[in-house]
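Deliverable D4.2, example record:
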Amino acid sequence: GGGGEPAPADPFAREPATHPALSVHYAKPVNAEIPPSLLMDSWITPNELWYVRHHHPVPMEAIDDDAELGLDLSVAVGGGGEKEAQRIRLSLEDLKRDFEKKKVVATMQCGGNRRGGLNGVDGTKGTSWDVGAISNAEWAGVPLAALLARAGVDSPEAAERMGIKHVQFESHDGMLASIPIEKALNPYGDAIVAYEMNGEPIPRKNGYPLRAIVPGFVGVRNVKWLKSITLSSEESEGPWQRGMNYKVFSPSVKDLNGVDIASVPTIQEQPVQSVIVSPADGERIEVIEGEELEIRGYSWSGGGRGVIRVDVSVDGGKTWHTAKLGEGSNQNPNRAWAWTFWEATVPAPALKGGEAGTKVDICCKATDYAHNCQPETPDSIWNLRGLNNNSWHHVKVVLEDALA
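Output generated by the structure prediction step:
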């Protein structure tokens, strides 16, 4: 040391501010979630309250110059040589002017949402998210299928003829992820390249200027700061697609020695999920004997599968009450990209009296349009990376006799 070299500039020096209400797990890169008390304030999550899960610093320099911003579109099948020949450059202006503007309301959930519940079984590798790594927005932009058509892939037959099986997304921060061609070309799949989030340009922390929106798919495939799209016979390279980062192994796999990671498919669509948002875990609630408990939460399923029922229990799952489905329940059950809020009014269990109060185990489980339901225990789905925890969600509360 001591050679008079200036200290390297902090790559996070220009990081957009994180809203003070969010619970921050890491500041560099930002991993922050919505606390339960704010999760259901609004069915459409305000931009500033959206959960944030970055892998790198926000690529501020790359997204600063509006005149230079746009999207590279190319076809690369087999060799790399033909990639340049078929490269199309579309400016931000081109995208807004030359293509229909499509809107889609979609909820995004991090693959690690509720990882904390798996850590209670055994340690996992990753951020210990609670229940707030999920948010909902109205996105607007260019239909992904229209961009594919511009590149000469306007039908499943064309894709098959050209050997295209994957749509690869590259971010300005270097992140790479891909989705199957079937999702991109599905006329009911509603995948878009968005330039607006809740009616305004996408904020920098949420992916300005362009973000891939792949409704019903795990958050990581919704690539922020989108730089290029490549149509390919292969899925994306890198740890987010081919490595272990978003792959689920058996509960018995405690390390990756001898595991053939490449043979395990990565997460795309996610399983059915529900969460109790109120009351909060550990809350003490004053009640009168025979009074009813108000229980609220959210539910969602991947692949656009609508939630058809949420069951709520106040005795740890012995008996069940059917919740009333609220906002989001009127979605087409084959294209239900957004979450569904629910509430249940359940008679409080008999009070034991005494200083300690009455301990109550409240839990919930949802069923989706394909009649998938949630596994009972986290033990049965524990996995090394702590992904896709959709076990029954429990909150433990203490009831106190208001008249005692």
